[in-house]
Specification:
mainly alpha; three-stranded antiparallel beta sheet; single chain; binds glycine; about 5% strand; Glycosyltransferase; two-stranded antiparallel sheet; about 375 residues
Amino acid sequence: MRNLTGEEQQWVRDVLKKIEDKMVPVTQRNLDKIPYTTKDGKFDDKSASEITWWTNGFWGGEMWQLFKLTGNEMFRQQAIEVEDKLDANLMITEGLDHDNGFKWLPTSVIRYKLEKEPKSLNRAMLAAGNMAGRFNMAGNFIRAWNNWDNVDRRGYAIIDCMMNLPLLYWASEETTDPRFKMMAVAHADTAMRDFVREDGSVNHIVVYDPETGKMKESLGGQGYGVGSSWTRGQSWGIYGFALSYRYTGDKKYLETSKKIADYVISELPDSYLVPIDYRQPKDVDLEDSTAAAITASGLIELSFLLDEGGDKYLDAAIKLLKTLDEKRISWGLDTDNLLNNCAVDYHGDGHNMSIIYGDYYFIEAVMKLAGNALCIF
Ligand code: GLY
């Protein structure tokens, strides 16, 4: 990776200062919450309403990153509170799924790595064991979701799962038992074969026959439709395959991350404001800032892993982050969130909102540029 220019280094310092200036008072006025989004600029609280919600680890992860950035003990205490609250989720099997990674990597795994807290090890191993139990041996994939609302999802795998695999890689490193890693690798190979198209665009959902493991169909999922290119899914792909390379050293995952990244860079609009789907109708201006932030962090990860040829990924990442900073972030104290114009999916009504993981990945990405981010994923 090239060194940052003097101007870029100054920009990184300025943004980190703005993050600290905002997040100290915002955290102080939101103690005890696990936010997902904002209503009238104020964080909601998923710990009160839905402890099993898939995003409930990100606030903890944000707290750990901010503790690293500032040394302020308040952030550490809040991170531990989130982790403690997630214990309730460990007793609700219906609320455990492949997103155990998103919940316990930014909470228990990182705390265990930092502090060797035995409770954190227990929690993370329970989460990893449960995730491993979702592996389908006929199809070599990790089942994503449960049968909520009576939909049969026994054969569902999704691109997002690439970001959850580090929980399994970590479990093998921690226990020296290779089985967790074997499952992660088998899933990554399946995803490389069935999710990533020739041009670097990706499927969101692939459905397999749960008995035979044969691929049945792909679904548009949270994107525009079958065969489209959901931007957050693309970002999970860039970042997730880069991570599988980091954990295994297998170059085919690095090449896959590059392939997805090259496609994304070719599709980014001149504005660098990221749509919900790269194949949504041209006259639709729906946006997703979370995809911009995750893409940026994934591209930085990729550029770190490459011996050469990584500059174009770093350049695109910095442009995405600067665009968010200038056009899509509320830096004032009148709102709790950072990023605006986030979207849950294309067809639902969760548009033009704040979403906690958008904030998390923006902070993580800028801290990576400063060489100061905790390696949570
Ligand atoms: N993992 C679900 C999403 O990205 O919305």
